[in-house]
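Holo prediction — S-adenosylmethionine.
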Amino acid sequence: MNLIKDRLIRVSKKYKFLRDFVFEGCQSMAIFFCAAFYGEHDAIYALTHNVPEVTLIDIDEEKMNEMKNIYPTNWEFITGDAPQIASRFLKEGKTFDIVTCDPWSPYTPKILNEYFVDFWKLANKYFMVGGCDLEYFYTPYNVSPDKESLEKYLLKLWNKKVKLEYMFKASSIGGGCYYMMFEGGSKK
Ligand SMILES: C[S@@+](CC[C@H](N)C(=O)[O-])C[C@H]1O[C@@H](n2cnc3c(N)ncnc32)[C@H](O)[C@@H]1O
């Protein structure tokens, strides 16, 4: 497991899915859809930036159990359906400084079109949505992968002014797979 952790740290230094500035003053993080690559896109950044309170959520029980051997024992591990857990957190009035969602690409349109506000409202500072492909979201929903188009789409859909902090193309899969970091919506 230490070998996996070392590899994750090396990869995180190269790719920077979460940039250093988002961790300034960060006290808590909820990482939804965290497990398939052991947190290569998200959880490893919480570890290397020493975030004090971290909650990991994924539906894959086996992978979650393996992750318990990589990450600190005082982190919270919740196995279950991400939208259901987000809605439970909302009802409980829970918020986190950073919230991330990194589903498989075919699921990402559901995050943006059905659950966006539920997750966004949990985030005090930043909210990341990953795994967003041209093939599954941008092309079918007629949105260009740029700040202005995405903000306009979300405003029209949700009637909320959502600010995109940064986006980047993480790979060329599906015509281009994008990660988007939004300003959090807990106070909106
Ligand atoms: C792209 S992978 C996540 C990769 C992960 N962020 C990483 O860096 O290792 C997508 C994840 O979504 C999880 N998943 C799929 N459906 C889910 C659901 N309804 N609720 C929670 N997790 C789900 C899968 O088990 C898988 O781990």
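READOUT: The beta strands are 28-32, 53-58, 76-79, 96-101, 123-133, 164-171, 177-183.
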